[in-house]
């Protein structure tokens, strides 16, 4: 939902634009129980939705976190320490869903997963089959739903930390794919041995993207080097990201986070929810 009239809005196109995310949850007379139920319902709905989006929605939960920001008072733009957060009068909202009569529905694009970003003259879109995919999620058994929610959590986290650390973003992205793999207890071979994590990871890539993609990228090896401390992406280690064979390979990994991972989650849900 759009924020109410009068709520703070950014004065630039490239910005975290605010919105209201409404969910249904079971009420309670105890304020702490009510807050816990609200948070659980919101997390579940937002996480499931983010697993199907290129541009994830971020909840405003930065209580107590402060950052140095540049003030806009001329002539000297002096830095000031400010608490991170978004606030407007909470009395604007009540306990009912907002009336959507007269509001324009967010459009759905068939080429949604081909987008690199949202153009200056374009608007926020959703996948054309979003409603179908959410129905597929609702139809999964609890174990599969848990897999998708964990994968969606790590996919969103990979997006949120991408500008801070490309290495951390890639580790989170691979964790997202691993969450979709066949659970360890179901990977026991006839010999009694358990099929390895690398094969389980590769099976997800093969199922959702195809063998050709798997042949072109050593994703799990890259992740292992990063996670076990034997490597950092050049962009995090002070190198120039756009120079050399290694930096170009790392750029492909970053593209994996931005454009390929949402397709994996979408296709996994298509296969599992069929």
Rg calc: 21 Å
Q: Round the mean pLDDT to the nearest integer and report it.
A: 82
How helix-rich are the residues, as a percent range? 40-55%
Biggest sheet overview: 2 strands, antiparallel
Strand order of the largest sheet: 1-2
Order of helix and strand elements from N to C terminus: HEEEEHHHHHHH
Strand content: 5-15%
How many beta-strand runs?
Answer: 4
Q: Span between N and C termini?
A: 30 Å
Class per helix and strand makeup: mainly alpha
Low-confidence stretches: none
Outline, from the CA principal axes?
globular
Structure report:
The protein is mainly alpha-helical. 43% of the residues lie in helices and 5% in strands. The protein has a two-stranded antiparallel sheet. Helix 1 (31-50) packs across helix 3. The protein starts with 30 loop residues before the first helix and ends with a helix. The model has no long low-confidence stretch (mean pLDDT 82).
Topology, element by element:
Layout: H1 31-50, E1 66-70, E2 79-83, E3 108-109, E4 126-127, H2 130-139, H3 142-160, H4 166-179, H5 197-208, H6 211-216, H7 219-227, H8 244-272
Parallel strand pairs: 3-4
Antiparallel strand pairs: 1-2
Task: Put the structure in a nutshell.
This protein has helices at about 30-50, 130-140, 140-160, 165-180, 195-210, 210-215, 220-225, 245-270, and strands at about 65-70, 80-85, 110, 125. It is mainly alpha-helical and about 270 residues long.
Provide key terms for this protein:
274 residues; mainly alpha; two-stranded antiparallel sheet; 4 strands; 5% strand; globular
């Amino acid at each position: 939902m759009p924020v109410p009239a009068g709520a703070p809005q950014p004065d630039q196109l490239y910005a975290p634009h605010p919105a209201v995310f409404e969910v249904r949850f079971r009420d309670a007379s105890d304020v702490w129980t009510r807050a816990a139920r609200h948070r659980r319902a919101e997390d579940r709905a937002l996480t499931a939705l983010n697993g199907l989006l290129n541009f994830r929605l971020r909840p405003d939960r930065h209580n107590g976190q402060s950052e140095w920001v540049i003030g806009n008072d001329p002539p000297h733009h002096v830095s000031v320490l400010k608490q991170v957060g978004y606030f407007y009068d909470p009395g604007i909202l009540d306990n009912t869903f907002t009336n959507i009569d007269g509001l324009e529905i967010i459009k759905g694009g068939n080429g949604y997963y081909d987008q690199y970003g949202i153009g200056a003259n374009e608007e926020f879109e959703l996948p054309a089959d979003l409603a179908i995919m959410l129905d597929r999620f609702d139809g999964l058994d609890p174990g599969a739903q848990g897999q998708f929610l964990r994968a969606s959590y790590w996919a969103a986290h990979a997006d949120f930390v991408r500008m801070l650390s490309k290495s951390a973003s890639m580790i989170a992205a691979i964790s997202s794919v691993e969450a979709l793999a066949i659970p360890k207890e179901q990977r026991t071979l006839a010999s009694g041995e358990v099929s390895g994590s690398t094969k389980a990871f590769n099976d997800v890539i093969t199922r959702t993207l195809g063998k050709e993609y798997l042949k072109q990228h050593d994703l799990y090896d890259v992740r292992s080097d990063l996670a076990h401390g034997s490597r950092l992406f050049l962009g995090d280690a002070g190198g120039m990201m756009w120079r050399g064979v290694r930096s170009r390979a790392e750029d492909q990994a970053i593209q994996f986070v931005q454009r390929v991972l949402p397709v994996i989650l979408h296709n996994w849900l298509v296969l599992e929810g069929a």
